[in-house]
Amino acid sequence: MGAVHATVRPPGSKSITNRALICAALAAGPSTLHGTLDSEDTRVMFDALTALGIALAWSDDRRQIRVAGCGGVWPCRDADLYVANSGTTMRFLAPLLATGTGRYRLDGTPRMRARPIGDLVSTLQQLGVAIESEAHNDCPPVAITAQRLPGGTATVRGDVSSQFLSGLLLAAPHAQRRVELLLDGPLVSQPYVLMTLRVMQAFGVEVLNDRMQRFVVDAPAHYRGCEYPIEPDASAASYFWAAAAITGGQITVTGLGPQALQGDVAFCDCLEDMGCHVRRDAEQITVTGGPLQGIQADMNHISDTVQTLAAVALFASGPTTITGVAHIRHKETDRIGDLARELRKLGAAVEELPDGLRITPGPLRGTRISTYQDHRMAMSLALVGLRVPGVLIDNPGCTEKTYPDFFADLESLRR
Predict the structure, then answer these.
(1) pLDDT tens figures, 72-105
(2) Residue-range definition of the domain harbouring residue 297
(3) 201 and 278, same structural domain?
(4) What is the reported pLDDT for 414?
(5) Are residues 39 and 93 located together in one domain of the fold?
(6) CATH code assigned at 184
């Protein structure tokens, strides 16, 4: 395939949609979320909130969700919730359910049962919550006997998932007294925590943020219902910017600019370092491909785009080294080990590092790509097929998790 030239607007951000759903569900008064993402992960959150007694309704075009907030009082006092493999739903609902009164259980897929949650459980126990990992292995399922979140001071680790801290912050306004969270060690994916704070602010709750090391919420407080617009998904946008880089074409993504809530717009910085031209306007970002060179990139803050950059790295002159992402071994799949395996099948030499990988391009060949039920594995490595014949993606339907129309939108680039 030749150079692609297109203007695209990806679907709404999964990360913002699920945060806004939480705030709207707890808010006093109704909310309407505009530009919402309709995907497996957001449906899982929608269904869980519905099971908890929250009244939610999709618009006919599935681009808006109307939410009747519960004012901080969960209507349902006994629920067994299935969250599939949605990390945000599991890690946000565990603290949120602790603000209620009753008995709750959270479970998911076999992969979810292998994803760590022990550090979040420990922090909630410090805050006075009766919560445990049922299998006593620091993984789901988790059981909660809630008597309203007591509050207080607790430490939280940030080196496994920023979602632990985000979930605690989202719940904190509905504690019985002030919540102070102290970070223990480095925080991965910091932009996602800043996103959480800005969504909370839009719904009327301010958080004291002391240099991303200490967070204070004066509770009890209350979210307020509002009209809330949701940006296009920046992680999804990365695939189109990468398509421009791989084919030497030009892609403009609308609805995202340098001031976007989502840190993944910084993926364009990596492409710029590799040799692409990037134009950043207030409401759109354009990437124009050029001769690509390998780079060294600490992707700790934009780890959801590691697989996308790996696909681009296959077409660079010289190796690309990605570091700062040890935590992605605990995502939907092992996004270091499994990614390395698939890149080698395509012809690259790959060295796994303790916190990343080093990719040395080689003669590329078509192959069947295993996706490991990981939506990002499917979407990122499908891009290789823009230049290399014979790239086949196993289980392309796994993109339903965050981007159901991905392959249709990718195919539209050909037109």
Answers:
(1) 999 999 999 999 999 999 999 999 999 999 999 9
(2) 234-412
(3) no
(4) 75
(5) yes
(6) 3.65.10.10
> Do 36 and 86 fall into the same domain?
yes
Mean pLDDT of all residues belonging to the chain = 96
Catalytic residues: 304
Note if the pTM is more than 0.85. yes
Task: Provide the domain count of the chain.
Answer: 2
Same domain, 161 and 253: no
Same domain, 311 and 398: yes
Co-location of 189 and 241 in the same domain: no
Q: Which residue has the higher pLDDT, 42 or 188?
A: 42
The per-residue pLDDT for 173 is 98
Residue 337 in domain: yes
Q: How far apart are CA 167 and CA 179, in angstroms?
A: 13
Lowest mean pLDDT among 21-25, 185-189, 348-352: 185-189
Q: Are residues 167 and 265 in the same domain?
A: no
Do residues 66 and 206 both lie within one domain?
Answer: yes
- Rounded-to-integer distance, Cα 138 and Cα 106, Å: 13
